[in-house]
Amino acid sequence: xxxxxxxxxxxxxxxxxxxxxxxxxxxxxxALSGHTxxxxxxxxxxxxxxxxxxxxxxxxxxxxxxxxxxxxxxTSFRIKNTDELLNLAPVNSVIxxxxxxxxxxxxxxxxxFFFGVNKIEYDGTVKNFxxxxxxxxxxxxxxxxxxxxxxxxGRLSAPFKAGNPFQFDYGNYLKNFSxxxxxxxxxxxxxxxxxxxxxxxxxxxxANREKLLQSINNYREKILNIHSNYLSSPNLEILGGIIFxxxxxxxxxNIKESFVNSGLLHILAASGMNVAFIYSxxxxxxxxxxxxxxLNIGFCILAVTAYVFMTGLGASVLRAALMxxxxxxxxxxxxxxxxxxxxxxxxxxxxIYNPMYINDVGFQLSFIVTFGxxxxxxxxxxxxxxxxxxxxxxxxxxxxxxxxxxxIQLFYFNNISIYSVFANIMSVxxxxxxxxxxxxxxxxxxxxxxxxFICKCFDFVLNPLIxxxxxxxxxxxxxxxSSLQTVxxxxxxxxxxxxxxxxxxxxxxxxxREKFFKYVKFLLPFLVVVLIFxxxxxxxxxxxxxxxxxxxxxxxxxxxxxxxxxxIDTGKSGYNGGKSQxxxxxxxxxxxxxxxxxxxxxxxxxxxxHSGGAVDLIKSMxxxxxxVNSTNHSxxxxxxxxxxxxxxxxxxxxxxxxQTVYENGGLKITNELISDVAGVGxxxxxxxxxxxxxxxxxxxxxxxxxxTFNKLKSKLPQNITVLKVGHHGAAGVxxxxxxxxxxxxxxxxSTGENKFGHPSVYTLETLRNSKILxxxxxxxxxIIVNPENYKITTYNPKKKKYVSIFKY
Length: 808
Fold this sequence. Notes:
- The chain is of the alpha+beta class.
- The protein contains 27 helices and 25 strands.
- Helix 24 (706-712) links the parallel strand 19 (696-700) and strand 20.
- Helix 2 runs antiparallel to helix 3 and helix 22 (614-620) packs parallel to helix 23 (636-647).
């Protein structure tokens, strides 16, 4: 079988190109994952075996080896792990430079753009750079434009690290854009009149290339402003996304949620589908007017090129455009190209230019869906009747696309849109008209005297079509169970799925069936059985305590031996309307591991860094009850928790001293609370929680310190296993007497970048007889306990798993 497959590959130059692209991609994953030696060893062994067994000619084997090592070299040369700005972070500073990307406006007047820094001032020091790239976020109503120069005051920081399982790695994401540090501009709305300005525009003369891109961006803004006279929200934003891409205008939150649930989110961003629509309409119209074939192709090339620039050169648009342009140029010179070979060539071309594209979700989705369509549609759309082919394509293409996109969608978003196929089948004809009409109106609007008239006429037709599109999305997106949350699939499961799908697809072809069915009839059931068994998980009977890495905040999860889940604190709320740590870190973890129910949440006190994520958890999870240190606290955070708990049927329970939170199978969790909370500050009124399981004892202290310990000392055990140090290790949370009484073997400090000096040197010195673990150094920490022993593990982002550091 193997020799037959190798023979088929070697005799088909298109398959040789496809395998070559696969080897190049394999080299990128080796370089980017840090396993270059392992990947090189595996490939070298395979190539040597192929040579010994005479599966492929030596010439082909040497070419593949060169492709692999070129990929390694190119990636290593282009990608670095740091730059000069990241080495300076964190620091308050003033940066000077130029905006390098089209500014994206988020909610609450937040603006984000890439910025080329040529000078930075900090702590009396001035440094000049050639053009270090950075991502800037600031609050402003001002209109920023690409390639304008600015002075900006704020804080230079490192991207937040992925210190937890399944957490989005922001630093790696920014590397896709050759960016390594972030900059948060000062908030102009919280400044005093005497403060220096947050930012100021600097008059500079842009280069000719920069002028061109500025003109394109200004043109996009102008067209959208004209359309705004005849379209209202959300239709304006939807049209803007379809024509110009998702960086042109941000859709309302409710529309985005609707399109996510219905599986139509891809519509809100210019994509390869739009390229296909625009080319098809142009070709058919020009063909109708009997324009000569090659002249027709030439006009189509110009139209597609114009559309690509209008959208800002997004990965999916660029991929589709490059493929189409190569095909059309081939038509002009009377050369045909195989679609799979062409797709492979374009992928390699883009990855040579920027190897980090391989980590871009849009790039992955775009190529895998296109590959699925190119592989499958020839077996399905075979009729000589063009109308029948159109109908078959309209129905089958969304189905095929959904089948090929599912694993990646689950991997990144833990979400399946159940009715996506039906929503897409209904939307495709409408979207094709909107795409072409919006594009043509934008092109004709270059003629200033008639621009308003053109947009008015086209919007008269497009407005009801966009409204129908919204209604389609709302209908399917609001049906019960329209969006299904799933666990995080492994890379092994994804590979199995695609192997099964490829084999099923190839079996549609008569030639493949005749040659390989005798092998596939055994291989396919085997792969299916392995995939099914890989989804079966067996819950363990251990007590597990996880300290999430949430910066200078607290968030802990206790998994009981009978798989109940109890949280102690919930991290911070989002800054300036952003996402909370519970949403970014904890909910992501729960989705990926299949946790849907939280038995109890203990909110030690209502400071934002302890209670800030509670509302998101209440809204998103099935929560049983919440223990609080006060049921009538006056803070805004407390009131939000009370209100949302009542609306979602969650019991609010007043914590008491000696209160049992959970008791079963030798595990006991109890709360302690000082009786006179009214006479102390919020920190010292924190709920104290004790976890006891066999000989293992762990004490959670919230933000409480010496004062609370002295009042509760008689109720607390001596010689505990683990102490969760209060108030992120601040001064005054522990003294010699407390350290000697509790005598912890381990001390865990939940902390991160902060301006308070946490953890205090005094606290670290006081706890020197225990082994100190810190989330800012060790990342997320997991303690695994059974009645006989325990082990302490810390999360390793490179290995993407917890690794044991202490075992007893």
